[in-house]
Amino acid sequence: MKIQHGILLCLSALACKGSENKISRLSQTDTFHQVPTNMVDVLWVVDNSHSMADEQEKIADRFGEFLSGLEEVGVDWHMGVISTDLDDVAQAGVLRGEPKVLSVDTPGYLDLFRERVQLGTEGSDKEKGIDAAFEALSFPLVVNVDANDGFRRAGAMLMINYFSDENDCSDRGGLIGVEGGQACYGQSDKLAPVAELIRDYRGLVDEGERLMVSAIVGPAIADGCEGSKPGTRYQTMAKAFGGVQGNICDTDFSEIMADLGLEAGGMSTSFILEHFAVEESIEVFVDEDTIGPSAEDGWTYDNEYHVIHFHGAGVPPRGSRIQVAYDVAKNDG
């Protein structure tokens, strides 16, 4: 959570003397703390179309790896599972199973999660995972007004995890009357713009609450993964909200589920800056140490969403303070 920031600007003509032909830069320092999360509400958004049986089984098999990241820091968690199918109005955005909300106090929660995450493969071939999550977290739901009561808690971090081997097809009515999942690709101009979806997601959390979105989806090139398509819309959501990105085609989800568990337990690897930054001006400090740019053991900057991503040994440890100093880009805002 960002707790403070400072702004410095060359305002006076005297201070800027000799710089008449230069544009003064706004300098910014954003401060974050790597604090373990006390409460986290985790929404699993699972593709239930015909090609997802194996992937659902892999999530179920490796759920223990996810839980280990939470158990290490004693996080108070809620979990719920929904599908990507919004065509079935009675189930659209509705948490599956009974009880709908799982917690550490739910008897047999491990087996219950494994059962409900294996949703079957009879769902719509227009996978609308982004909007399915939005509907699940918007109150009231269209049909089942009280269906998801008790899942979201004030002050808890919200974590949304997409699992799909197709791209998102959230169209908000743009494809009404158009049959078949191929329309999601052939008429992609009728889908809801991802920028609009990002804006709506920001309204899902109150001030001081954190939202993290992760995407385990098809890669750009899916060798050996028959039928998978690149999940670019899901990936864009994960970039915007600093979550884990994984490959749905992986044969084993051990590492993916472990990474998700660490993130849910408060080990953030990405931080959204207050402004767009001039990349060459960025300086990153973790406690008293300077961290250099590196895609292996340092940080990289996503200029599209003004996000700092940490990698490898560069991921800030629990309890650390992260400061990012930078010049604000001219195109900010």
Structure characterization notes:
The chain is an alpha/beta fold. The protein has two domains: 2-34 and 273-327, no CATH class; 39-264, Rossmann fold, CATH 3.40.50. It has eight helices and 14 strands. It has helices spanning 53-61, 63-71, 109-117, 129-136, 183-186, 194-202, 232-241, 254-264; strands at 2-8, 27-33, 39-46, 76-83, 102-103, 157-163, 211-217, 245-247, 270-272, 283-286, 289-291, 299-302, 307-310, 321-327. The protein has a six-stranded mixed β-sheet, with helices on both faces. A five-stranded antiparallel β-sheet has the order 1-2-14-10-11, with no helix packed on it. Helix 1 runs antiparallel to helix 3 and helix 2 packs parallel to helix 8 (254-264). It is globular. It starts with a strand and ends in a 6-residue tail after the last strand. Residues 1-22 have low confidence and may be disordered.
List its salient traits.
333 residues; alpha/beta; 2 domains; 5-stranded antiparallel β-sheet; 8 helices; 21% helix; globular
